[in-house]
Amino acid sequence: MDTAANPAPALRGGGQAVDFRGETHRTVLHRMGLTPELRRVETGGSPMRFVDERGRTLLHLPAEFAGGEIEVLRGDLAQVLYEHSRPHTKYIFGDSITRLTETPSGVRVDFQQGVSRDFDLVIGADGLHSNVRRLAFGPEEDYVSHLGYYAATWQLRNDLGVRKGSVGYNVPGRFASVGADHRDPAQAGAFVVFAAPELSYDRHDPEQQKRLIDNAFAGLGWEVPSLLASLRQAPDLYFDSISRADVDTWSTGRVCLVGDAACGATIGGMGTGTAVVAAYVLAGELARAQGDYRAAFTRYEGRLRKYAQICQAGGDRTGRFLAPGTATRIRLRNTLLSRPLFLNGMLKLGEKISSTVDLPDYPVDTSRVVR
């Protein structure tokens, strides 16, 4: 179920690529039985090429730099998880939670469509702008910090003839790129990042967001004018700040947070992999606790908080990496990552960071799991 202000009428498709890397991610995907299906829909990775205004290559990064060991589109991952869980899960689309009221035996959940339901527990796995967190813990501004950048993506025709991967262009504080669709070479996706103080805008007004992007990239060279032209006609736009969420305690009463809602970053914080690991551990601890959800929540957070924070820290650097603030920093990034020794070191560090937690092999027994 989508708990956003504009609830989705069906499972959302498309979206940017997400990746899994390292022993911990591999282990969880294997134990959940997801690896074969994700391998069938993986993109094959997305090499990145940075160019100057005339299109000359300044830096080339291999597919595994951004794509890890398994890279899939977010919509494909959602579909795989949906199909695996559908036999024993009731999904509600086109609705949203408006109130949570804890009772002696559970949580009364009021929905936008006027229905109220009772649940044993409520798990908020609804991202950086979590509605569950807002209702149960407090306003977003108490937990989400702006990191100085904004990012946007949209779909367009591949008129530039980009092949596998993406090609991008930098000026200080701004980055614009376009990447080929791995299934349909006639289609592509634009991705932009720009530095800005925290902006006041309507998160549900794409036309206003398009104007913000247009203003940020006006006057730039390379292929930026054609990307902006495609933006004006784009039916779907993702636009958000690059931010991080920090919640002191991941549970309150019978409500618990998972993934970016608890400890996330917009981009670069290994959020998808961490969220899947967190879901696995929380489910395992709830099964092991045999109804003692308080003990399960405590063990879940104790096992994962440090791991999630280490992974999350990568998001603090994403904006500065993609859109360095000065020409000198752009040149320094390109120079360092052109050195194989430095690049390989960063790849090994990413795998090490994603594997800094020991996972119990929880027994498969759902008979005692709460509703």
Automatic annotation (TrEMBL):
InterPro entries tied to this protein: FAD-bd, FAD/NAD-bd_sf, FAD_aromatic-hydroxylase
Molecular-function GO term, any one: monooxygenase activity
FAD-binding domain boundaries: 63-289
Ranges annotated as spanning the membrane: none
Keyword set, alphabetical order: Monooxygenase, Oxidoreductase
Pfam families named in the record: FAD_binding_3
Taxonomic superkingdom: Bacteria
Keyword Oxidoreductase annotated: yes
UniProt-recorded name of the protein: FAD-dependent monooxygenase
Species annotation: Streptomyces mirabilis
